Amino acid sequence: MTGSGEGWLSDGLDVPGAGSGLWVSGVDYIAGWREAREAADRLNRALLGVGFELSAVRAVASTNEDGRGVVRLAGWPDAVNRLAGLLEARLDGDGGAA
Q1: In the Cβ-directed half-sphere of 77, how many Cα atoms lie within 13 Å?
Q2: pTM of the entire structure?
Q3: What are the start-end ranges of the E strands in 1-98?
Q4: Whole-angstrom Cα distance, residue 40 to residue 36?
Q5: How far apart are CA 35 and CA 37, in angstroms?
Q6: Per-residue pLDDT tens digits of the chain, which is 98 residues long
Q7: Which run of H or of E encompasses 46?
């Protein structure tokens, strides 16, 4: 995903414990990360589409210790609060349907 987010090129495999040698032999971390990356890219495109800067809030692809893809939201509190407000307004407008 390209964008103005700081460090967007470096949000690669973020496996807890990876720096301390806790990789599990035989676990396909790459497949999980790729799935998470596709979802993160989609969310980042949506964030850009509604006017967010990826340096303020962005989705980051990661994996857990089992190799399952994980998408984390990282951002400044004010940007996350703005996003929460948009989601809450959506809920209010559709009677709770997302």
Answers
A1: 0
A2: 0.70
A3: 57-63, 69-75
A4: 6
A5: 5
A6: 444 444 544 444 444 444 445 667 888 889 999 999 999 999 999 999 999 999 999 999 999 988 999 999 999 999 999 999 999 999 887 655 55
A7: helix 29-49
Interatomic CA distance for residues 64 and 16, integer angstroms: 7
Q: How far apart are the first and last CA of the chain?
A: 25
Which strand (E) or helix (H) includes residue 3? none
Can you name the residues that pair with 59 across neighbouring β-strands?
73
Per-residue buried b or exposed e for 34-73, using 16+ beta carbons within 10 Å of the residue's own CB: ebbbeebbebbeebbeeebbbebbbbbbbbeeebebbbee
Show the tokens assigned to 67. Answer: 């190799």
